[in-house]
Amino acid sequence: MAWAVAHALAVVATYLTTNERQLCASTCKLWSGILKMEWRGRAHHWNMAATAANVIDVVNQCGQCRSKKRIWSYKQAQTLGNDLYFVASGIRLSCLVDCMNLTAAAATTLLAVLTKAFPAFAHVVTLLIDDNVFYVHRLHFIQAKLVDIAYNASNLELVNIAKPHANSVPTICLDASPSTVHFLRSLVSSLAMIPPPSALDLTTITPSLPPTAVAGLVLNYPVVYTFSSQPPPPTDNALAMQPLVVFELVISDVNTGHTHSLVKYSLPQLLVTHPNHVAVMRANLLVACRRHILHHEATSSTMSVHVTTITLSSVAL
C-alpha cells in the first residue's frame, strides 16, 4: 500500500507548487525510512524469544544491582517488565514508568541491558518529560503519530479540562491548535533520528503545551487534553478532585486467563454529559487496538481485547 501511495504522489506532483512538491518529497523520504526500519526489524520482531516472565527477570536483576536505598521491589519489576514486554512486542505503543522513581541514566541503562538480552528491544526508545520517563515502540509509534498528523489531529477528541468548561462535552479536533500539530511533527522527526539507546528529552519541543496534553499524546490516548487559554492555576484543572470516568483497555490470554492493562485514561464525569460520547471513545479505542493486534497473527489467535469503564468518586491528580 505504501508503494501505491508513493506512485499516486508522483502522478499528482506535476500539479503541485514548488513548496507542495518539497513537502511530498520529504514525506516520501520519511515513509522510505520507516519502511526500511520495518524490514530490518521484522526478523527480530517476529522471532522475539522473550516472554513477559523473561523480561521481568531481567528488570528485577537490574533492580537488585542498584544501591540498597534505591532497590526495586519484585512487584515494581513485575509491573514495569509487563509494560516493557508489551511495548517491545508492538502490542502496546508506549508506557509511562509510574511504579518507581527512574532517572534518565537508569532508564537508558535498563533499555541497553534489555536490548542486549532481547533484540526486539532495539525498536524501543526512552522519552523524558521533566521527571517522567516513557518507553515507546519507535516504529509503531511513528506510524500512529503520522496518522494523527495526516488528519491534523481531527481523528482525536478534544477535551477542555479548564473548570469554566467542565460542562462541555468532548469535541472533534476540527481546528487543532498549531502547537499540537507542531509537537507531533517535531516528535516524529526526533524519534526518526535518535540513535538507540539514547533518551530523547521532550521539554525542548513542548514549550507551549501543558504537560497533561503532552503525556496524553505520548501515551497515544484518543483524546487531547487542553485548556481554554493559557494554562490556569492547578485549582482550575477539572481533572482534580472531581468524579472521573476511567477507560481501561484490557488484553486477555484466552488460554491462561491472565489479563493485562494496556491503556488507561480518565475523563471528568462532568465532561461526559451524553452517553454516546463515552460509547464513541470506547469504540474508537477498541477498534484501534483490535486493528493493531491483527497485525500480530501469533498473538491474535490467543488474545482477546475489551474496554471497561469505571467511575471514581473523587481523585487527586
Automatic annotation (TrEMBL):
<protein>
    <submittedName>
        <fullName>Uncharacterized protein</fullName>
    </submittedName>
</protein>
<keyword id="KW-0732">Signal</keyword>
<feature type="signal peptide">
    <location>
        <begin position="1"/>
        <end position="18"/>
    </location>
</feature>
<dbReference type="Pfam" id="PF14953">
    <property type="entry name" value="DUF4504"/>
</dbReference>
<dbReference type="InterPro" id="IPR027850">
    <property type="entry name" value="DUF4504"/>
</dbReference>
